[in-house]
């Protein structure tokens, strides 16, 4: 009997507590502002979870938010949840954040997908499509967040009556969102045609709409508009076809479109809208540009300075890097995973923004060090390929000049060129100093020789540039002990590439020689403590032998190649005189 009385008393206490909580919420809701209403919604969701009864209790708050931002009650609740989960620093929320905050299932959240998409079309919520894992991210646009903070009414920016420059400002935003996976190709086309359709007072918009109607292919229209955007916004004339193919829907046959470009069978080429680029007087079939007549006729309302930044022969496009499977030891694998994730464009932009806000340097300086042949350089290349970043490979020999002062100019010029690349690229390229100990070595104290003074001057310039760099710098070295200590603290992450262990060596053998049995690969891995580079050498030897002799290598052949890979070091002392 006492047990029942206790239960009744506990229920009564809980009931009073909830009543008191509701009274407090009602009191807070009297302080009407958008943030206060959102805060009340979050507190109610935490206490009761989402249901129709709770929605009724939120009527006052959702009505207030709805009036300010022209939203429905459920949209007001979703917006409050996204704002809470994204935080005050402009982060993002994902589906899990929303379902946990509202106390609903993923299936229930699917009922509200259209509401979120409608808020996206109203320029309130930005949807970031995540292609690397399932699910989307949700962020609040800056101008919408400013309206929320200041308790102002907000409506999507008007797209009518824009100036020519304002049209291209909108296009820049759309392409930026597309390459950040925030827009599908279909949405990209819809929003671009909406902008040019509402601004037919502008000559470019009239001509662009005519192109859309003539081409009758949304993918190629997107490509055409991207060429126009790069030309007007950056003065860039020539664009890699590989880059343009990224504007095609994922379901498209990219190889077919690549062949169509090569054969000049695309609608853009058939209508004489684009042509192959000229490279030193020769046709470059890897790049296209807007035809000269188009550049003259379409852009009379703009003051365009065509960019004439020559492409360095040391700048390697990420699209030209062949995929290669790398095998890491556990520690290396974890560090490379973190670096790859950090250099994902959406993550990097968020990281750099937060670092700037905290008064920290936003440049990313990394060093890969360890024994020769352990995969340092190849890791840089694969990192560039995976994160879709071009890579500027520094030729250290070109930086040093025998004439006084020229080497310093070369180094300054390198970083100036790299800054231009960062400013004019969709994604900051990687600046790679391979075998960096040749230029990052210890500075000479009280240097008197001209060479020592030059080396000191070069290192001082690099140290200064590393402090202000806004892109991604990677240095590799086999001799980390030779580096000047001043460089060490400027590297955000230091990855040690150790010699592969037996398990890693077995995987490398099998990846490079797939015909090897697991047992044979294990034998070779146990017997020879080779680096990945040494195993690759042996693989090349066996391939050459097969090409010449027509015979696949046996285990005896591989053992012979392995023995040849090791230098023979004689233990005999050299005698004085003749033998």
What's this, in brief?
The chain has 579 residues and is an alpha/beta fold. It has helices spanning 2-29, 34-48, 52-57, 59-69, 73-86, 95-102, 106-110, 113-121, 142-149, 164-179, 185-197, 203-215, 218-234, 241-245, 254-262, 267-270, 292-298, 330-342, 345-357, 376-386, 396-399, 406-424, 450-468, 485-488, 502-512, 518-527, 532-549, 555-565; strands at 93-94, 125-129, 136-140, 239-240, 274-279, 282-290, 315-316, 364-370, 391-394, 430-433, 472-477, 493-497.
Strand count, sense and closure of the main sheet?
A: 6 strands, mixed
Helix content: 55-70%
Largest beta sheet: strand ordering: 7-9-10-11-8-12
* C-alpha-based Rg, rounded: 31 Å
Structural class: alpha/beta
Low-confidence stretches: 570-579
**Average pLDDT:** 82
DSSP summary, beta strand count = 12
Strand content: 5-15%
Based on CA inertia axes, which overall geometry fits?
globular
Number of helices: 28
Gap from first CA to last CA: 112 Å
Characterization of this structure:
- With 579 residues, the chain is α/β, with parallel strands linked by helices.
- The chain has helices at residues 2-29, 34-48, 52-57, 59-69, 73-86, 95-102, 106-110, 113-121, 142-149, 164-179, 185-197, 203-215, 218-234, 241-245, 254-262, 267-270, 292-298, 330-342, 345-357, 376-386, 396-399, 406-424, 450-468, 485-488, 502-512, 518-527, 532-549, 555-565, and strands at residues 93-94, 125-129, 136-140, 239-240, 274-279, 282-290, 315-316, 364-370, 391-394, 430-433, 472-477, 493-497.
- The strands form 3 sheets. A 6-stranded mixed β-sheet has the order 7-9-10-11-8-12.
- Helix 5 (73-86) packs across helix 6 (95-102) and helix 12 packs antiparallel against helix 13.
